[in-house]
């Protein structure tokens, strides 16, 4: 069978890594995004806005994928608005396909906010019991992830394709301009600290500093998405996806500091807003970019400090159970320190950090 993929959000941290994996496996890959200039020549670009149904239908008029991978979202002021916009994006894509009956599988990437709630009610109320398991019921709060799932389930039943939902923790991987990119944000922060003498302070909560946690390598996520899309055991299931190890930030932080030639600053005992720390550093980063010949001199195009603050500031333990997909045959594993250091190496090699 010839596999033809449509990746929605192909320029994002998930989409880029998934596209590279599918191309390496011999797939024909179409990449849909509003701006497609950064897509590699191995990916067939489709420039369209998923919230414009008419333009989207025209852009997809001759695209007949066997697999759709939805890996994007839009941020609105309230979760009610998030629900409307993000469910519409997925619905519009599925309704714009000229031959939806040709679909074999549809994949949706969401995340641990399935268990933690949306940003406006993030990790509030009764703390969830860890580790997070796919069998846990939906929270009794508005959450656009639930609406997206329902859109996918309904379309799969109507058109006869299988589906999978993937719930990563914080994703560590290469993507420039991504609005949720902790790895690159920390690389920029460390580079600024080395250049200016700022202390490399862990910005998060005492719970995150001391408790066990996990993250998701973008390549690990791509591997699970591919497995579920092509393996009967992965059909019509929702899966957690993390690296497979656990760590404490009080161990990892000095390891990251050492890669940059820094000493990790003593933990101050409470959160320190990274967004505030970086707020006045735009000119400094621009000067660094000129001095070191970096490819991107606009700090906000690399760093998403608000998201890093949200993740590292959580007052609860976050550990994710991977038993379900392991029992069904997915055995991928990625050491977390390797995830970060490989990303740092690539950012330096491609001249995004000095």
TrEMBL record:
<dbReference type="Pfam" id="PF22917">
    <property type="entry name" value="PRISE"/>
</dbReference>
<protein>
    <submittedName>
        <fullName>SDR family oxidoreductase</fullName>
    </submittedName>
</protein>
<dbReference type="InterPro" id="IPR036291">
    <property type="entry name" value="NAD(P)-bd_dom_sf"/>
</dbReference>
<feature type="domain" description="PRISE-like Rossmann-fold">
    <location>
        <begin position="61"/>
        <end position="354"/>
    </location>
</feature>
<dbReference type="InterPro" id="IPR055222">
    <property type="entry name" value="PRISE-like_Rossmann-fold"/>
</dbReference>
